[in-house]
Amino acid sequence: MGSVEAFRYLQSEATAWRRYLHENPELDYRLHKTARFVAEKLASFGIDHIETGIAETGIVALIHGKCGAGPTIGLRADMDALPILEQSDKNWSSKASGKMHACGHDGHMAMLLGAAKYLATTRNFKGSVALIFQPAEEDGLGGQRMVQAGIMDRFSIAKVFGLHNVPGMKVGSFGICHGPIMAALDEFDFIVKGKGGHAAKPHETIDPVVIAAQIIVGLQTLVSRNTNPMEALVISVTRFNAAQAYNVIPDQVEMAGSVRTLVPGLRDFAERQILAAARGIACGFGADVEFKYCRSTPVTVNHQKETDLAIKAARNLAGPASVDEKISPRMGSEDFAYMLEARPGAVIFLGNGSTASLHHPAYDFNDDALPYGIGYWATVVETVLPP
Ligand code: NI
Q: Ion ligand 1 — residues with CB under 5 Å?
C-alpha cells in the first residue's frame, strides 16, 4: 500500500474547487475567471511568487522548499474547456451553455491547487517548485506559447512533469512509458480540381468526387502497404466538401484531415507521400491537386531518468501494483510535448474510473481521483528534490 491516505484531508476542499471550475468553463486563452480563481487560491496558500498573464491567461507560481538550495521543477496543469454542450444532470454541470470541461482540466487544476496547498505548508524539499497553469491546450498550443514566453529560463525550471486523467483506467492507478507516449499531430488540406458538369454526362467532366474517393483509399494504402506494421501511422480524412445538388458534378472537391505518428521519420514520410500519392492519382485521371500540410504538436516524448522518477513517485504513493510502467503510447496528441522539448520530464496518466470518455458530452472528472493526483504531485516533488 502507498501513502495516498496522507492526502485525503484535502479531498473535500479540492472537490469544491473542481466543481466550481466545472460549473464555470472557459475556452482557449479566454480564461479570465478561471485564472482569477486559480491565482486567488494560490495567494491564499501563502505562495512566494505568483505571476499571471503569461501567454495571455497562464500562471506560474513558485514555492521555495525549506531544505536548502536546489533546482526548480515545473508541475503543469492545463486550464481550458471545450466547445461542447454538456449532457449531465450533476449539480455542478456547466452554467455556460455550449462550453464544458470535457477533458478533466477542471480536475487537473484542482489537483495542482491541492498539491500547492500541501507543498506551501510542508515545504519539505530543497530547491523550488514552479506551478505551471497553462491556457489553450485543446486548441491554440498554449503549451508552446508558455515556452515561447520564456518560462523555462525565467523561472530556471530544470525538469517538468505533467499528468492527464484517463477514463477506463481504475481510480488510483497510474500508467506511463519511457520514450514516445503520445503522437505528433499534423493537419492537411486538399483541393482536387477537375471539371464539373451534368451528372448525366460524366464523360464530359473530370469528376473530382471519384478521384477524391480514390485518393482517400490511396492514403489508407500508405498506411497498410508502405509503413512498417510495427510502427504507428494514422491518416484520417475528416472533411469532404463537394457539390450541393443531386445532379451536379462539381469542379472541385475540398478535403481535410489529420496525421498522427510516433517517430520523426514516419512524420516526414507521411508529409511527402500523402502529396505524392494524391498527385499521382489525380494526374492519372487528368485532375490537379492543391495541397497544404501543416505540422502541429510534436511527439510527446518521456525522458528516461524523469520517467523513472515519475514511476518511483507513483509507486510510493499508490503501491507498485497500481503503476503500469509499460503502457502502449496513445495516438492522441498533447501540447505538453513542447515543454518536454524544452526541458527533460515526463507525463503520466491517472485513472478516472469508468466514466464517459474524454471529449464526450457526458464526461465528468472523477473526484475520487483527486487525492491521487494531489499526492502524486507532492510525492514527485519530495522524490525529485529530497530534503
Ligand atoms: Ni486534456
A: 103
- Record the pTM: 0.93
| CA 366 / ligand 1 centre spacing (Å) | 14
Distance 113 CA to ligand 1 centre (A): 17
280 and 139 share one domain: no
The pLDDT value recorded for residue 264 is 85
C-alpha to C-alpha distance for 100 and 359, rounded to whole angstroms: 9
Looking at the structure, do residues 66 and 141 belong to the same domain, yes or no?
yes
The helix/strand/coil state of 353 is: coil
- Count of domains forming the chain: 2
Residue 312: per-residue pLDDT: 98
Which residues, including other chains, have CB under 8 Å from residue 105's CB and lie 6 or more apart?
Answer: 77, 78, 79, 80, 81, 137
Last residue of a domain, one of 276, 295, 314: 295
Q: Kindly report, residue by residue over 165-202, the tens digit of the pLDDT.
A: 999 999 999 999 999 999 999 999 999 999 999 999 99
The alpha carbon of 168 and the centre of ligand 1 are apart by a number of angstroms equal to 15
Q: Is 222 helix (H, G, I), strand (E, B) or coil?
A: helix
Same domain, 373 and 338: yes
Ligand 1: distance of its center to the CA of 2 in Å?
27
State the distance from the centre of ligand 1 to the C-alpha of 171, rounded, in angstroms.
Answer: 17
Q: How far is the CA of 165 from the centre of ligand 1 (A)?
A: 8
Q: Give the pLDDT confidence of 95-131 residue by residue, as tens digits.
A: 999 999 999 999 999 999 999 999 999 999 999 999 9
Distance 137 CA to ligand 1 centre (A): 7
